[in-house]
Amino acid sequence: MSSQKKKDFISFDNMNGADILALLDLAARQKADPNTYRFSKILSGKVVGVFFEKSSLRTRLSFETAIFQLGGQAIYMGPECGRIGERESIKDLAKVSARYLDAFVLRTYKHETIVEMARHSNKPVINGLSDAHHPCQALGDLLTIREKLGRLEGVKVAFIGDCNNVCRSLAQSLQKVGGRLSVACPQGYGFNAAFVKSVGLTLCNDPVEAAQGADVLYTDVWASMGQENEAAKRRAIFQPYQLNTELLNHAPGAIVMHCLPAHRGDEITDAVIDGPQAVVYDQAENRLHVQRALLATLVD
Prior knowledge:
The protein has 300 residues and is α/β, with parallel strands linked by helices. The chain folds into two domains: 17-134 and 287-298, Rossmann fold, CATH 3.40.50; 137-284, 3-Layer(aba) Sandwich (Rossmann fold), CATH 3.40.50.1370. Helix content is 42%, strand content 14%. The chain is built from 13 helices and nine strands. The strands form two sheets. The chain has a five-stranded parallel beta sheet. A four-stranded parallel beta sheet has the order 2-1-3-4, sandwiched between helices. β3 (103-107), α5 and β4 (125-129) form a beta-alpha-beta unit. The longest helix is centred in the C-terminal third of the chain and has 19 residues, at 280-298. The chain is globular.
């Protein structure tokens, strides 16, 4: 978050561990006792613009539900409205919309779109997803890990697959709360050396090596939205990185996470995602709780 008067949530770049833990604590309190928010009407009279360039299930439902639960109103501007900045400049869109709205939630292809919106808006901007970062997902992941394991300090998460936006935000946030991330991906699909060093993660090409001693096994789709033309190529390259029973045997006590939607039979098998170690539905639910805490914290 920013140190300026107007607070945004764009990535974890400007957040510290205390900031993250404060959000998780608020989310946990609200989850445990709905009376902490349902009668406070934190967003009473407030309107939040939900601008999505990409289709969505969890992000849209969880944000609109959170806004409603806090007493506010959401206005949805979906993919049918076109990409942000095409019809008019992002600067004009931000400055005009901020006259109507009290906050923005954006789900975009380019991370620069969110940065530009925040630059020109005098109202809070929340990153609901971009090609580079998915910080709301990481917050929900951390809440889930803490619920299931009782801690974040010293937890080892093994991420198997593509070094995408989800993996990047997970790496940044884990490092700030004392966790460790080990990533196994094919050659050429990893993070650059500077990022690896900055977050202290372990990067390798062997899923078994990454999974050894892991408290959490995490995977995501091999081809994200916008990469559909690479799907066949990626499926062949990433096949050895499937989260299956054989890999799970190398971390027998680990919980299994996936941010969803899952391509069952590709990055994860039915036996694993439907198995007793999977926590994917609790993980999806926690998106609601952390995003409600975010809105309660950012929107004046």
